[in-house]
TrEMBL record:
Residues 474-502 are annotated as: Disordered. It holds the Pfam family PK_Tyr_Ser-Thr. It is a single-pass type I membrane protein. Residues 1-17 form the signal peptide. Belongs to the protein kinase superfamily. Tyr protein kinase family. Insulin receptor subfamily. This is Protein CBR-DDR-2. Its main location: membrane.
């Protein structure tokens, strides 16, 4: 409520036109039942019936009185209570209780973290204004404790993640407070604020969303939409932390561009910029309804009148927007003073202004509306039923057609030259004609399907069919593979590979394409910037990892997976490269499961000191795989520790080779990749050696730890210019002299001076 009062005071009568109850903080509905049981889920439950997530409602004593995760909780746990909301909300506080259980409970969460997401985002870890992620929870089982969120959260899903310094049993009840959000859901700034000497006016409160615009600018929410409007000078010593974003004229050329994104199209009446400085020379505001094009006819320009008073001051710059419609709004600001600061940007739309004039329907009109709605629903059901019948008939007619004709209808994403943009072209046949075939042996009959989806053995004797759970599936053993042509085969072990060569590889048969109905997809086990990996079992009992794009229409994710399919098909079955089993109907990848996951998570969870023999074995496996990729001319393109996975025998496999069109993180990229967008086997050598640097510290020290992204780019330019102050990662001496020399040569600026992966593999083979 304090945030609302500040906004009302600063933005005046226009904001006062909003309906007041829209801004009143209130429970979203855990306690009163507005949030349904199906909307409350959890990572696990000690007992689903008695302490499942449906019992986690504040001030309630349902069943055993709270939600209790199955394992005990410590500082490394990730157990969560998740609430899925029906809309996007501004969440201003979280209220928690322990488990009273009618006097039998003793469990509560002393601390917790919050993860959240909204349309288009992945899970984001909440940080408050001071940068802390841990919230103080409860001190007993009965007292409700409410914690205000500063800044508030804009989310459609929220997770409460209990944590404890000491391992203990935790139970909790919860309520979420806030109101429906109709404002900005993302913004991005170019540039992102200025840092000069000791003055840092970047948006340090900006959420770690891992979301990017098409041009690679970070999207999210931060200081400009947190509801707090600073009144004092940004240069005051007692100024509240994270209150102003500032841009210096010398570093920005006096130009700033901010892109605001909304969930729906709005008709905007005005925008207010809460600013500090001398004056703003001019503002251009332009709108996009489709989220892609910004027609010039929609542009509105405004400038501030010249005044005799040139002293810096705190003031509001209001721009009338004349009911312009848009889903995205781009604001370009020009200034000539030394600094320009913003503390908040607030939009008002015509939809909000008309809320006070909404008419209450009379009983007669309400009855008419109900009849109209019922008639519309009946018509819609008939229409959908007709469409469904027609589609079923068409599918039956096309049942015997070649799958290749369907594959050619798909699109693959192609990267043209060094252009940063992506283009979509029809498939040129690379992924058809022999590479894909329908897995006919997986297309089971109705009777087989009913056997697979049988009623749980735990169900009662009633005739009601209970939906199966993960534990209810009893898979038959996988079919005996044909000895002449293996549908699935175990990877070649290093011991059985011919002569220990890194080229030991089996030929891949035609890649199978599995119907979605033959896949049982489980929980998420990993994620990348644009992709998500989940547990999966193919009908017949074959376990795999299901890799899909996070967003259905994500161009980057689709292109990444398309390129990965092409590379893995060319790789065949190499013992040190994760195998591609097939794809589903949407061309999501079905990959070989690797037991212990990525090397970074493995080492971060380990408390033992560095075992150099184990590190050398991992390096040998990695260089074996990279030498093979080099021999068949495949550039990995984005190598980091996340691309090294450990199997059940603690051997390494590399994953996700995608070619030269997918950039690695800056900290692992060669200077020519950062500056010139040049990706080769030699830039792969730099990236892999940088990964070895991190592994030598058991992944507890990142390369260029002390540098920001901007400084890493400057360092890359300095390296290419052969400037003496530029530096490269310095790997500690953990290997014999010859290998240390090879690693050192990998950081040579002249690419021809860097050793081949085959040379690396031979050197590591001599010490293993």
């Amino acid at each position: 409520m304090q945030i609302v009062l500040v906004l009302l005071a600063i933005y005046g009568t226009t904001t006062n036109a909003l309906r007041v109850d829209q801004f009143v903080e209130r429970p979203i509905g855990m306690q009163n039942g507005d949030v349904l049981d199906a909307q409350i889920t959890a990572s696990s439950s000690f007992d689903k019936q008695s302490v499942g997530p449906q019992n986690a409602r504040l001030h309630s004593e349902l069943a055993s009185g709270a939600w209790c995760p199955k394992p005990q909780i410590n500082s490394k746990s990730y157990e969560f209570l998740q609430v899925t909301l029906n809309d996007t909300f501004l969440i201003t506080s979280v209220e928690t209780q322990g488990r009273y259980g009618n006097g039998t409970g003793r469990e509560f969460a002393s601390h917790y973290m919050i993860d959240y997401m909204r349309p288009g985002s992945q899970w984001i870890r909440y940080r408050n204004r001071s940068g802390h992620v841990y919230m103080d929870g409860n001190f007993d089982t009965t007292t409700p404790v409410i914690r205000a969120l500063d800044p508030p959260i804009v989310a459609s899903r929220i997770r409460i993640v209990p944590s404890s310094k000491n391992t203990r049993t935790v139970c909790m009840r919860a309520e979420i407070h806030g109101w429906k959000h109709e404002g900005v859901i993302y913004y991005s700034t170019v540039p992102d604020g200025s840092r000069l000497d000791t003055l840092d006016f970047k948006d340090n409160m900006f959420e770690n969303s891992q979301m990017y615009t098409e041009s690679g600018i970070t999207r999210g929410l931060g200081l400009l939409t947190d509801g707090y409007v600073a009144q004092t000078s940004p240069f005051e010593k007692n100024q509240m932390n994270n209150s102003w974003i500032g841009w210096n004229r010398d570093t920005t050329d006096g130009r700033v561009t901010i892109l605001f994104e909304f969930e729906e199209i709005h008709n905007f009446t005005d925008v207010v910029l809460a600013t500090f400085g001398n004056r703003i020379d001019g503002i251009d505001v332009i709108f996009s309804q489709d989220g892609k094009t910004f027609p010039l006819f929609s542009q509105i320009s405004s400038s501030e009148r010249q005044t005799l008073n040139n002293t810096s001051r705190r003031y509001d710059f209001r721009v009338p927007l004349h009911n312009r419609a848009g889903r995205k709004v781009r604001i370009s600001i020009k200034f000539s003073s030394d600094w320009m600061f913003l503390t908040e940007v607030h939009f008002t739309s015509a939809a909000n202004l008309t809320l006070m004039t909404e008419k209450v329907p009379t009983p007669e009109s309400a009855t008419t509306q109900k009849l109209s709605v019922i008639g519309g629903i009946i018509f819609l059901l008939i229409f959908v039923g007709s469409i469904y019948c027609i589609s079923v008939c068409l599918k039956r007619r096309q049942k015997n057609k070649s799958v290749d004709s369907n594959v050619k209808k798909d699109l693959i994403i192609t990267h043209m030259g060094n252009k940063p943009s992506c283009h979509v072209f029809p498939s040129n046949g690379k992924l058809s004609n022999g590479h894909y075939e329908v897995a006919n042996d997986i297309l089971y009959t109705r009777s087989q399907k009913s056997t697979l989806l049988s009623v749980s053995s735990k169900s009662s004797s009633s005739c009601r069919v209970i939906p199966p759970t993960w534990n209810d599936f009893n898979f038959p053993p996988p079919p005996e593979p044909n000895k002449e042509e293996h549908t699935y085969s175990q990877p070649v072990s290093p011991e059985n590979s011919s002569n220990g060569s890194y080229k030991s590889v089996k030929k891949v048969p035609a890649l199978k394409k599995y119907p979605t109905s033959a896949l049982l997809i489980g929980k998420a086990i990993g994620e990348g910037k644009f992709t998500m990996i989940k547990e999966c079992i193919i009908f017949g009992g074959l376990k795999c990892a299901h890799k899909s794009s996070k967003e259905e229409d994500c161009v980057h994710g689709t292109r990444a997976m398309g390129d990965e399919i092409s590379c893995l098909l060319k790789c065949g079955r190499h013992p040190r490269i994760v195998e591609l089993y097939g794809v589903d109907e949407s061309y999501n990848l079905l990959l070989e499961p690797v037991e212990y996951g990525c090397i970074r998570n493995f080492w971060l969870a380990s408390e033992t000191s560095l075992d150099t023999e184990f590190l050398a074995r991992i390096c040998k496996d990695v260089f074996s795989a990279m030498a093979y990729l080099e021999s068949i001319r495949i550039v990995h393109g984005h190598f980091t520790p996340n691309n090294i996975l450990l199997d059940g025998e603690f051997h390494a496999k590399i994953c996700s080779p995608r070619g030269p069109s997918h950039h690695a993180q800056l900290r692992y990229s060669a200077p020519e990749s950062i500056v010139n967008n040049e990706f080769t086997h030699k830039s792969d050598a730099w990236a892999v050696s940088t990964t070895v640097y991190e592994m030598a510290y058991q992944c507890r020290q990142r390369p260029y730890e002390e540098l920001t992204n901007e400084q890493i780019v400057d360092n890359a330019r300095a390296l290419l210019d052969h400037q003496p102050h530029a530096h490269v990662p310095l790997i500690p001496t953990v290997f014999p002299y010859e290998i240390m020399q090879l690693l050192t040569r990998s950081f040579r600026i002249e690419q021809t001076d860097r050793p081949t992966f085959e040379r690396f593999w031979k050197a590591f083979s001599e010490i293993n």
